[in-house]
Amino acid sequence: MVRRIPIRQGLKMGLAWVLIFLAIFVVFALRSDFAALGDRLMQSAQGPATPVQQGETLRVRQAMDGHFWVDAELNGETVRFLVDSGATTTSLSTATARRAGIEPSGGFPAIVQTANGTVAVQRGRADRIQVGSIVREGLAVHISDGFGDTNVLGMNFLSSLSGWGVEDGWLILRP
């Protein structure tokens, strides 16, 4: 004897399976967007990336994503930076440069290699950048839409310090 499922119940089960597969498809198709959203939520949950001042030395706590982030003053604007010893030059998104009043120097763009591939950049100069109590003036910067929303504090800033290093999950900056 064959047991038959009523049409109404069969339609409900069929619709449930369609919705399950649709949800799986959406999650898979938008996984990078969900990852970016998760990163932003984690950064928001961590609060501002404020360095801890100890005498002249600044200490920056490693974020949950494994990176070091600092909130710095760039020409009077508060800007979040990823500290990246693999970046030769401090790099800004076009929107950040515009907000901080940094104009590209003009001329042909330079081509630079980043961890995310090749990017065309314009050169510029930050009048003033301040991380905690450390102030640098006239710092060369790269400006590009290719950086997305991420601003990078590079080696041209780090090498201007008397010393820097990483100890037990803290980035140590010595002016």
Termini Cα gap = 85 Å
Rg from Cα? 23 Å
Sketch the major β-sheet. Answer: 7 strands, mixed
Principal-axis shape:
elongated
Q: What is the H/E string? A: HHEEEEEHEEEEHEE
| CATH top level assignment of the largest domain | Mainly Beta
User: What fraction of the residues are assigned to beta strands by DSSP?
Assistant: 35-45%
Chain-averaged pLDDT: 91
CATH topology of the largest domain: Cathepsin D, subunit A, domain 1
Low-confidence stretches: none
Number of helices: 4
Secondary structural class: alpha+beta
Q: Which percent bin holds the helix content?
A: 25-40%
CATH superfamily of the largest domain: Acid Proteases
* Number of domain units: 2
- Structure summary, number of beta strands: 11
CATH architecture group name of the largest domain: Beta Barrel
Attribute tags:
single chain, 175 residues, alpha+beta, Cathepsin D, subunit A, domain 1, 4 helices, 11 strands, protease, Aspartic_peptidase_AS
Structural features, described:
There is one protein chain. A hairpin with a 2-residue loop joins strand 3 and strand 4 (77-83). This protein has helices at residues 7-29, 31-46, 94-99, 155-158; strands at 52-54, 57-61, 68-74, 77-83, 90-93, 110-114, 117-131, 134-144, 151-153, 163-167, 170-174. The protein is elongated, with a radius of gyration of 23 Å. The protein has 175 residues and is of the alpha+beta class. The strands form two sheets. Strands 3, 4, 5, 6, 7, 8 and 9 form a seven-stranded mixed β-sheet that branches. The chain contains four helices and eleven strands, in the order H-H-E-E-E-E-E-H-E-E-E-E-H-E-E. The longest helix has 23 residues, at 7-29. The chain has two domains: 7-42; 48-174, Acid Proteases (Cathepsin D, subunit A, domain 1, Beta Barrel). Helices cover 28% and strands 40% of the residues. The model has no long low-confidence stretch (mean pLDDT 91).
